[in-house]
Write a structure and sequence with these properties.
The structure holds 2 protein chains of 2 kinds. By secondary structure, chain A is α+β, with helices and mostly antiparallel strands. Helix content of chain A is 31%, strand content 46%. Chain A is globular and about 40 Å long. A 6-stranded mixed sheet of chain B has the order 2-1-6-5-4-3. The termini of chain B are far apart. Classes of the chains: A alpha+beta, B alpha+beta.
Amino acid sequence: MASNDQIVKDFNDAWARLNVDELMNYFTEDAVYHNIPMRPAVGTASIRKVITSLLKGVNAIRFEVHHQISIGNVVMNERTDYTEMGEKKMSLPVMGVFEFENGKIKAWRDYFDMATFSNALAG
Amino acid sequence: MTTSEQVVNDFIATFGKLDLEALMSFFTEDAVYHNIPWPAATGRNAIRKVLEGFFKDMSMTAAKFEVRYQLASGNIVMNERVDTLTINGKKISLPVTGVFEIENGKIKAWRDYFDAATFNEAMAA
C-alpha cells in the first residue's frame, strides 16, 4: 500500500485532472472535509457536492506543495493552490491537515483566509 | 521529539507568558513572522512591533495555544492548533495551522494560517 505521504501527493496531483469521481475515491465513506472558514462537509455525498461546486467553471487547478510532513496517520502540508476560472487566475496560500484510515482520507481540513479567496474570485 | 520541535514547544509555552523579551530571544535576526492574511513582518524589529501590537495595542492579557497535531521533520515543524486569546477582556478561539522553520535552534520563519474574518468578527462581537 502506498504511504499516506504518497497518497496525499497523488490526491494533490489528481485535482489537476478536475475529475470528481477520481477525487472521491480517496475518501472514506464517513470522511469529513472542512474548509475551516466554511461549514464542514460530512460524508461522501456532502463532500461530492462541495467538490463539484468548487470545480464548476474551473479551467485549471494546481496545488503547489512547499512543505509536507507525514507521521503516523496524519499528513500536513503547506501549499499554494492555483485556480484558473475563465480569465481569472487565483492563488491561495493554504495549510492542509489529512487524517488517514486504511489508506483513505478520513478527514481533510484546509486553513486559509476566506477574504483572500473571495476577493480573488471577485477581482 | 526533534530539537526543532522542542524549540516550538518552548516558544508556545513562552507565548502563554506574554513575555515579549523572552519571545524575541527565539527568533533569528532575519526571521520572518507572517500571519498569512496580513503583511509579513521581516526582521526582529518588525516582529517586535507585531508582538507589541498584540500585547499592548490590542491589550492581549492571555494566550493559550492548544496543539491538536504537531509534525516535525528536519528543520520544519507544523502544527494544527486552537489559539485561545483574551484581547481587550474578550476571549476568542481561533483555529490555526502554523509552520515553523528552525535554524540553529532559533525560529527563522513562522507562518500562521487562519481566517482573518473569524478573528475580526470574534473581536467585534
